[in-house]
Amino acid sequence: MLKGLKFILLQLLAWIAFFELARIIFLLYHHSQASGLPFKTILLTFVYGFKMDLSMACYLIILPCLFVLLSVLIPVFRKPIIYKIYSGIVLFFFLLIVLSDVEIYQEWGYRLDSTVLQYLSSPKEVMASTGHLPVFWILLVFVLVFGGLLWLFNKIIDRSIFLLQTERKRKLISAMVIACFIVLLIIPIRGGVQMQPMNSTWVYFSSNNFANVSALNAPWNFFQDVMDKERGIKNPYQYLSPQRSNQIVDSLYSSSNGHVQLMDTTSGKPNVILIIWESFTKKVVDTLIDGKEVSPNFNRLKKEGIYFNNIYASGDRTHKGVSSIFSGYPALPNTSIIRFPQKSAKLTLISNLFKQHGYANTFFYGGDPNYDNYKSYLLHGAFDRITDKDLFDSKDKPTEWGAWDGAVASYMKNDFSNWRQPFFHCWLTLSSHVPYKVPGPAIFRGEDETSKFLNSVHYTDEVIGNFIKECGKQAWWKNTVIIITADHGIRFPATGNVIDDFKIPMLWLGGAVEKNKGLVIGKLASQIDLPTTLTKQFAWDASAFPFSRDITDSTSIPFSFFSNSVSFALVQPNNYFIYDVKGETVKEQQGNLTEKHINAGKALQQFIYDDYLKK
To answer: Taking phi first (over 0 means left), then psi (-120 to 50 degrees means alpha), and beta for anything else, what does residue 363 get?
Structure first.
C-alpha cells in the first residue's frame, strides 16, 4: 500500500534536487558576490532556503498525487507517459524562470518577480533590453540543460513506475493513504502549522542582502509575487494630472526649515530607546473606566517629558506603522512596502543613520520577525540584533503571536549590562494585540473586545512604567531619550468617528530632554514625521526621509494624512475629511471643506502610490 507513496516521494525528491541545483547555478553565476561570503553563510543559504524549496516541490507534486490516486481505479494513470508530459511541461517553465532569474538579478539587482510581466506587452522594449545578451548561447545552454534534466526525470519515472501496479485487494487502502498524504501537503506548502503562511522573509537570515536573496526559491518568489493581489503595476488613484499632483504636494511640503532644539546633545551622543506600543490609541490617555485609569503610568510620565498630543498614525496595521516610523514612509492603502523586500531595500531606516554614527542597534521583539517581512526590512536597517519569540519559555508565550510584554521587558533589563553606548534600541510591544491575552486578573470587567483591549493596554502600561523606572536607575539615563509612540491606532473604545481611531500619542522622556520637562507640543503632525524630527535633533542630514518633516519647524504647514484599504484622510488645523475611495465620496468631515482641500488629499494619495510603484 506504500508503493504509490514511494513513487510520489521520488518525484518530490527530484524536484527538491532541482531547486538545490538552481541555487548552485545562482551562486555560481554571481560568483563575484558569492565569493565574498563566508563558506558557512553559503551553506546557510541552502539551510534557510530548504523550507521554501520544499514548499514549492509540494505544490508541484499535487497533480501527480491526484494522478496516482486515480491510478488505483483507472489503469491509464499507471502509464509513464502522463508523468513524463507533466514533468516536461513544468520543467520547461521552471528552468526558464531559473535561468531568467540569474540574469534578471544581474541587471536589476533583485530576483525575478512580476515586474517582468509589465514588459511582455512591449516586445520592442524587451528585444532592446536583451539585445546585448548572447541569445544564441543562452538558448543553447537552455536546450542542453533542459534536455539533460528531462532525461533524468524520465529515467526516474521509468524505473519507479512499477510502484503504481497496486494489488486489487489493497486498492482501497492505497487510495486512503494517498488521499491522506495529499491533505498533509498543506503543512509543508504553507511552511508549518503557524498562523502566518510562508513569505519571502522566512529565508532571510543575514545582514548581507545577497546571502538572503540567494536563499530564495526563484519559482516560488516569482509566482508568489504574481499571485499577490496587493501588488499593483498601475496607480489606481489617478485623480489629477501628474503635474498638478506634484504641484499640490510641493506646496504642502514647503517650509523655511525652522527648528527648535528639544534634546541636550552637549554631553555627547545621546542614547535612544524607541518603544513602539501596539495599538496604543490616544483615546485611552487620561481615560477613566469605572473610576480607574487605563494608562496611569503613561499619564504620569507624560508630565515628566515632552508630550506630543496631536499626532496621527499613517495607517492601520503594524507593518505599515513600522515603515512609517523608521523610514518616514507613508502607509499604503492595501499593502505595505516592507512586504516587498526589493522595494523596501530602497528605503533608509533611521537605524541606518545611527549605525553610521557609531551606535549599537537592537530590535527587541517577542513575536516572529518573519511576519509580514519585518526581518528583511530590519536587517536592511543595520540592526545588530533582532530578538524573537524563540528566546522565551513556552510559559511566557500565551498565544501564537509570541511572548508577553513583561517577559520581553525582563529580558531587556537583564540585557542592560550588554548595552554598549551610544545605542539606538527599539522595542515593539505585542500584548495589546488581539486576542489581548495578558497575565493576572482583569482590571476592567467584561468579556467583550473593548474590555479585553483596555485590560491589555493597562497591563503593557504597567510593564512600560516599571521598565522606565529601571532605566532611570542606570548611569546612562542622564544622556538618554526614550520615545514612546504607537504603530497605529484602533477602533476601541469606539467614539463613532473614524478619525479618532488614527490618533496616537507620542512622548519623549529621559535625561536628554529633562530641561523641557512638562512641555506639551500641540502641532498637528504624523508618525512619519518622527525620523526627520529626531534626525534634526542630532543635526544630521534628513534628506533620506522626503515624506517626513520636522515637527518643531514652525514654518512648515501642519497637516496629517492617513489611509486604509477603503479610504484616505487629510487632517488640517481647522478641518478634516475622510474620503471613501470606492464610493468616491466624503464619508466623514469637520469644518468648511472646499474642492481645494479634497484635491490636496487626492494629490497626496496619488503621489504616494506613484512613489511606491517607482520603487
So the answer is: beta
